[in-house]
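Write out this protein's structure.
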Amino acid sequence: MRSENRWTSASLVLGLMVAAAAAAAQTPSPALLVLEKDDRSLAMIDPQSLKIVGRVEAGDDPHEVVASDDGKFAYISNYGAFGATPGHTLSVVDLDSQKRLPSIDLGALLAPHGLEFAAGKVYFTAEGSKAIGRYDPASQKIDWVLGMGQNRTHMLVVGKDRNRIFTSNVNSDSIGIVERSKNGDVSGWTETYIPVGKGPEGFDVSPDGKELWAANSHDGTLSIIDVASEKVTQTLDTNTKFANRLKFTPDGKMVLISDLGTGDLVVLDAAARKEIKRLNLGHGAAGILIVPDGSRAYVAVSRNNYVAVVDLKTLAVSGRIATGRGPDGMAWAVRK
């Protein structure tokens, strides 16, 4: 009888331990999502402990990731081999179960890259088809496509009112502003392409929607565009070797630029248009994610296989998150 009780007790303890381990591995809210590009995986990270709590296969050649507004799903662009075999899918991950769902086949829309989730839909660039598109998860259909005619339409930002979409067109040396048509254009949209520096890639729109800042990766300059007039108002020298991403802080006071060539994170005062800090994070500073309250930034250091945590009050590195190989695109998932 005692032996049976001991066995029952041991089984109960083991069961509790397994349950506790399973609970500890659940995706937290908020969760930091990091694409490990070279491992073709998506890591789910607890921002409090800075530990990876789950990992899911992300499909072939994953480049960027976004989270749905309710924090339940992640969408990943499968870009493909640059200049060789372009991808044509978006991978989907259920963040609750930490499982990959069936991919979204984009058909002839090739080399998807830049992503944004807005008003329940996934906007994406199709670099290999010189187009942008939109996927509706509710209908499970691509419900809108617009040709751009630009070379390497790489990243995009959807305006808050969704009446404007902004794109960086790397090999056309331009920034695109796509606006809902007011003059009866048959497509419903008008397109304006603004010449900037060489190789614009990372860019962002200021929180008040008045300015667009674009980091030009091939010449080390930064182009500042007045959104209303759709004109470049200022060009700055950022002293970067290969600027990769650019982000405004939520209050619009600072702009962060990652330099893939030097591993630096460059911090600019947005009002003064001047550099106020330069941090060397390692080798291959790439993706940038700033948390909604503006307290910290996560910067993927792709060649050192970690994400640097930067305190935006002190402008100092406050931690590191060890990842798989080639961390790059990131997203912030909040369960609702």
